[in-house]
Specification:
By secondary structure, the protein is α/β, with parallel strands linked by helices. Helix content is 30%, strand content 25%. The strands form 6 sheets. Strands 1-9-10-8-7 form a 5-stranded mixed beta sheet.
Length: 466
C-alpha cells in the first residue's frame, strides 16, 4: 500500500477513539529455520491449495445467506481458518466434513450476532478489512485483534469510507489493531472513489452496502481483482459493474436476500506463482500445475514472466463458478530482464516477491516502480526482499517505490543467509525458491509463516523435485 492521503489520515483520526483494547496475540513458539538447497528439475503434476481470496469471500457470503452453502477446495491455511472462526463467532455454523467439504449455514444479511469476545484474525489482513465492511452495516460491536505483524498494518484506508457510512471505530495509533468498531444500522449509502488501487477497500465498502438501504457505489480509477463482484453476483446480490470514462463503477443495492451456493474453489494463482517461477528457473523442469485460477485481475505474474521469456502453456481452459481456470504446463526457459509496467501491479501485487527472484536470475536488468503498496503488506516487502536477495548474493538497488535488480544471466545465486522473513509467508516462500537456484542454498530464519497461506508448500516442493 502507498502512503495514506491526508484526507484518509485526518478522517481516520476523527473516527478513532482512545480505547484500551485487548493486546494482540504474540507468536510464542520458537522460530523454525531451514536452508533450502538446490534440487533436481521440477516435474510431474501438482495441485496447489484453493484460492485464498475466493475462500475468504465464500465463507463470508455463505454466512450472510439463509440456508446451506457448500464449498469444496477451500484453502485450509491459518488465514482462512481465522475467517471461519470469525463467522462462527458472529452466529453462522461453519463446519468441515470428513471429505474436506465445508458446510456453512448462514444467518442472512443483517442477521449477524455480536461476538462475545475479541475476534483473533491472526495474520490475515484481507479477512480483517473485509469483515470490517460486513460489520459496518450491522448493529453490533466487534473487536479485532491479530498477531504482531497484522497489528502493525494500517486500517485507516478502510476506516475512512466505513466511517462515512456511519460506523464508529476505536483503534491503535494510525488505525492499527487492536480495533473495536460499532456498526451502524441503518448505515448510509455512499459513493466512494478509491484513492489507491485496493481490492480490500473496494470489497469492504461493497460488503457494507449489502445491508445498507439504497445504492452504495465504488469507483475504481485502476481495476483491481474482481472476486467480490463475481461472487456477489453469484450469490444473488443486486450488483452492477460498468466502465465509464476509463473507470470501473460498481454499484450494489442493499436489502437483497443472498441465496446459498455450491462453490468449487480454483487453485490459488498466488500459491501457484512459486512453482511457476521455480519451474521456469530450474534447468530441466517440466511441471504441470492443475486447476489454477486465471482471473485476468490476478494473472499479472504469468503475463510478466512470459514477457521475460518464460515457457508457460495454459491447457484445458475452462470456467468454474464464474472464474476462469486452466492447467499450467511450465518448462525451464532463460529469462531476460524488463521494465515492469506499473499498471500491472494490481494484478500481481502479492507475486512481486517471487518475481524479484526471477529477475535476479534473468539476463540483464529488471526495473520495477509504482510499488508503494508493498511497503505495508505483512512486511515492508520492498525492503525485506532487497535485504534477502542481497544476502543470497543478488545485486539489488532499492528505491522509494520499487527495486532495480541486475540478473545473473542464469547463473546460480551464491546463496547464504539466514534471511529475515519478518513473519511474512511470501518472503519465506520466495526465498525458498531462490534456494533452489543457488550454489550453497538459502537459509530463511523462520518457516512458520508459510502455514498462513500454504501449509503444504514444502511437501509439494519435495514432491515436484522427485
Amino acid at each position: 500500500m502507498g502512503a495514506q492521503s491526508p484526507s484518509i489520515k485526518s478522517a481516520a483520526r476523527l473516527a478513532i477513539g482512545l480505547c484500551r483494547c485487548q493486546k494482540p496475540r504474540r507468536v510464542t513458539s520458537p522460530p523454525v529455520p531451514r536452508r533450502f538447497l538446490p534440487q533436481g528439475p521440477l516435474t510431474g503434476r501438482i495441485r496447489v491449495p484453493g484460492d485464498k481470496s475466493i475462500s475468504h469471500r465464500a465463507l463470508m457470503l455463505g454466512a450472510l445467506t439463509v440456508g446451506e452453502t457448500r464449498v469444496t477446495g477451500l484453502l485450509e491455511g491459518e488465514d482462512v481458518l481465522a475467517t471461519a472462526a470469525a463467522m462462527r463467532a458472529m452466529g453462522a455454523s461453519v463446519e468441515r466434513e470428513s471429505d474436506g467439504t465445508w458446510s456453512i449455514h448462514g444467518v442472512g444479511v443483517g442477521g449477524l450476532l455480536q461476538p462475545r469476545q475479541a475476534v483473533d484474525m491472526g495474520n490475515s489482513g484481507t479477512s480483517t478489512r473485509l469483515l470490517m465492511g460486513v460489520v459496518a452495516s450491522h448493529g453490533i460491536t466487534a473487536t479485532f485483534t491479530g498477531d504482531a505483524s497484522l497489528s502493525q498494518r494500517p486500517m485507516g484506508r478502510v476506516i475512512e469510507p466505513l466511517s462515512r457510512m456511519g460506523a464508529c471505530f476505536e483503534a491503535g495509533p494510525g488505525g492499527t489493531l487492536p480495533l473495536t468498531m460499532r456498526g451502524c444500522l441503518p448505515a448510509v449509502p455512499i459513493e466512494y472513489r478509491l484513492p489507491v488501487a485496493s481490492a480490500q477497500v473496494k470489497s469492504a465498502v461493497l460488503l457494507a452496502g449489502l445491508n445498507t438501504p439504497g445504492v452504495t457505489t465504488v469507483i475504481e480509477p485502476v481495476p483491481t481483482r474482481d472476486h467480490s463482484e463475481r461472487m456477489l453476483r453469484g450469490f444473488g446480490a443486486d450488483i452492477e459493474v460498468k466502465e465509464t470514462g476509463g473507470e470501473r463503477v460498481i454499484r450494489v443495492r442493499g436489502g437483497a436476500d443472498l441465496a446459498p451456493q455450491t462453490i468449487d474453489v480454483p487453485g490459488d494463482p498466488s500459491s501457484a506463482a512459486f512453482f511457476v517461477t521455480a519451474a521456469t528457473l530450474v534447468e530441466g523442469s517440466d511441471l504441470k500445475i492443475e486447476n489454477v485460477g486465471l482471473n485476468p485481475t490476478r494473472a499479472g505474474l504469468v503475463t510478466m514472466l512470459r514477457q521475460m521469456g518464460a515457457d508457460i502453456e495454459a491447457l484445458d481452459a475452462r470456467e468454474v463458478g464464474g472464474e476462469p481456470v486452466a492447467d499450467l504446463r511450465v518448462r525451464h526457459a532463460p529469462l531476460t530482464g524488463i521494465e515492469v509496467d506499473p499498471s500491472l501491479a494490481p494484478s500481481m501485487i502479492d507475486e512481486f516477491p517471487v518475481l524479484f527472484v526471477a529477475a535476479a536470475l534473468a539476463q540483464g536488468t529488471t526495473r520495477t516502480s509504482g510499488l508503494e503498496e508493498l511497503r505495508v503488506k505483512e512486511s515492508d516487502r520492498l525492503a525485506a526482499m532487497a535485504a534477502a536477495l542481497t544476502a543470497a548474493g543478488a545485486r539489488v538497488e532499492e528505491s522509494e517505490d520499487g527495486l532495480v535488480i541486475a540478473g545473473t544471466g542464469g547463473e546460480p545465486l551464491p546463496g547464504g543467509g539466514p534471511v529475515a522473513t519478518h513473519l511474512d509467508h511470501r518472503i519465506a516462500m520466495s526465498m525458498a525458491v531462490a534456494g533452489l537456484v543457488s550454489t550453497d542454498g538459502v537459509e530463511i530464519d523462520d518457516t512458520r509463516p508459510i502455514a498462513t497461506s500454504f501449509p503444504d508448500f514444502m511437501a509439494l516442493l519435495e514432491q515436484a523435485g522427485q
